[in-house]
Amino acid sequence: MAEKILIVDDDLDSLKLIGLMLQRQGYDVIAASNGAQALARAAADRPDLIILDIMMPDVDGYEICRRLRANPVTQPIPIIMFTAKTLIDDKVQGFEAGADDYLAKPTHPAELASRVKALLLRSAAQRRTAAEGGSIIALLGAKGGVGTTTLAANIAAAMQQKAASILADIRPGQGSLGLVLNAPRAAGMMNLLGRAPTEIMPRAVEAELTAHASGLKLLLSSARPKDSLLNVNVDSVVATLKSLRSLARHIVVDLGSGLTRLTARLVREVDQVVLVTEPSRIALQMTRELLGELEGLGLGRGRIGVVVVNRTPSQTHVSWQEVERTLGHEILALVTPAPELAAQAAEVGTPIVLLQPTSIVATQMAKLAEELMARNSVLSANL
């Protein structure tokens, strides 16, 4: 069946011209000549895409776009702003209203066709991801300083090489992922936490993502200490996690260390929790206690994994076998020390698995990522 496109323009000549261009490409075209008609037709006909003029007689295109995005029925429909207003400020205002693309009048039929095709393909891919539902893996440190953030970045980077992945930092005021990956001023998570849960939909979350050179998308918290004092609405974070599932196949979340009111709620919203620890007596005692708390929250052992990170060589580290005996829990992976490589990777903002993919530590983390993806498949099959 042909994809349906709604054209909104008060200029009848433009409606006919654009409609003819698209019909020749095989699309089913419907039209509206004012804002009220546009909103009604979008809700009733559920088009696959909307081409929207800005200068309208009753309500301008910016406001129409905002209303379309505020309505759950029309919120997912991709929108191209198509207008003679070509100043940068006009484009910025269009994107802020919720437009996906911006095309200036007049345009060549080939450019219009290519923009429409690209946006429809992207929208279809997002719908498939939403239908399948991305899997969320949360990393939680047994204590601070065990390498949770570094491990999260590398697992996500390894997963990105297999399928679209997002790395999220849910640590207001303590967000170091942006610093590690050379995106120090990004604070998309903080922008979302200022919204009501009902306002946090996939498109809003997608707008706050930062792109890394690897192709990985980042949702970052700030490193401003005062932000750690904010009274975070847990429901807003939960709404953010649910929206992330529709935006990527794999979502890796850095929860920081220890159990808090926020993390205690979030671990129940994810598919797997990876406890990160180190092979020292104190860290293992804290890990054992944390394992008990997680199980008390209703997480079955199949949803909890333990990864031991040796950050520095030491003769005092306990063995793999002793770690498992102490915890009473199987270890998913043991990551060997590579402090110089880790420092180098942080300096250039590139995860180790991409900077030195053949190194021992990169191979270990890549295998861990594969294991976690395999476990997700098993968990999904058992639902």
Distance between the termini: 33 Å
Our Rg estimate from Cα atoms comes to 24 Å
**SSE string, helix = H, strand = E?**
EHEHEHEHEHEHEHHHEEHEHEHEHEHHH
Please name the CATH architecture of the largest domain. Answer: 3-Layer(aba) Sandwich
Would you mind describing this structure in some detail?
The chain has about 375 residues and is of the alpha/beta class. It has two domains: about 5-130, 3-Layer(aba) Sandwich (Rossmann fold); about 135-380, P-loop containing nucleotide triphosphate hydrolases (Rossmann fold). The chain has 16 helices and 13 strands. The strands form two sheets. An eight-stranded mixed beta sheet has the order 8-9-7-10-6-11-12-13, sandwiched between helices. Helix 12 (about 280-295) links the parallel strand 11 (about 270-275) and strand 12 (about 305-310). Helix 2 packs parallel to helix 3 and helix 6 crosses helix 16 (about 360-380). It is elongated and about 80 Å long.
